[in-house]
Amino acid sequence: MAADREALRAKLKGMKAELEHQEAISEADRDPVELDQTSVGRLSRIDAMQVQAMALANQQRRRSELERIRHALRRIDSEEFGYCIKCGEEIAEGRISHNPAVTTCIECAG
């Protein structure tokens, strides 16, 4: 099981690195939209505001996922890892291998 946990740890670290990379490259999209009617028309400004809103929503989603990954990395060596936080049953191996940051079994997730 130690080898499995090491593979899961590596997967979690890869997921974390990818989310951090996405966070870095989307930083400019979250910048405030300038109100300069001479350089940007009204529709372009609305489009820019929509892009900003989507970027902020994606940032919040990434931060939540990063927190789930950090939590999984902290508990991967504990007795709790791999067990549902709601019902205490073991989480299916396929579910854990797909996303090692999950904290609930399929029944409790629904």
Mean pLDDT: 85
Multimerization state? single chain
Structural class: mainly alpha
What is the share of helical residues? Answer: 55-70%
Gyration radius (Cα, Å) is 19 Å
Task: Describe the protein.
The chain is mainly alpha-helical and 110 residues long. Helices cover 62% and strands 0% of the residues. It has four helices and no strands. The longest helix is centred in the middle third of the chain and has 34 residues. The chain is elongated, with a radius of gyration of 19 Å. The protein starts with a helix and ends with a helix.
Write the layout of secondary structure elements.
Layout: H1 2-25, H2 42-75, H3 93-98, H4 106-109
Helix pairs in contact: 1-2
Brief sketch in words of this structure:
The chain has helices at residues 2-25, 42-75, 93-98, 106-109. The protein is an all-alpha fold and 110 residues long.
What descriptors fit this protein?
4 helices, mainly alpha, 110 residues, elongated, 62% helix, 0% strand
